[in-house]
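## tool: complex_structure
## caller: assistant
## args:
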Amino acid sequence: MATDAPLVEKRNNMVPAVALLVAIAAWAVPGLGHLLLRRWGRALFLFLAVGGLAVVGYGMRGEMFNTRSSDPFGALGFLADACSGAFYFLGRQLESSGPDISRAAGDYGTRFLAGAGVVNLLGVLDAYRIACGRKH
Amino acid sequence: MVVFALCVSVAFACLGRQTTAGRIKYAVWSLALFLVIGVGIAWLMYPFSR
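## result:
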């Protein structure tokens, strides 16, 4: 009993750190967290879903919010966009002609970009739960 | 709307179900609900747009 307790404690101490790294990887590249956890199907479809939303959003010239927004909606928009990880930082490469919200398509594109971030956030939470052992 | 619903449904199905058959069923169901509810809300808002 006394010899088992330190091992259990050590395992529990390691899991949160590894789970956090998996969560960060899942945020940085959509699907990477699940890839590290050997959930190949989830990794692929998450990457395709988040990537599809982001690419379509940039193609429709949606607006990508930044940290310099002066209103709360802009700040929320930045949080949603930033959750898509690499696709947020590649925004300038994917949307070279810049946003155009004067047309309806640009407005829809903005929603697509926010949706990509929110879906990736769900993926991050899922990867974290799997890494913690709370979900199979 | 269809593209958005498709991407989100695929993500929900992958995260919410464990088996392939369950994921496909859930994705189709989720996609149908997205489209029906989206079009339904659009029609509900139609009188207010006139």
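## assistant note: Confidence is low (pLDDT under 50) at residues 1-14 of chain A. The radius of gyration of chain A is 18 Å. Handing back to user.
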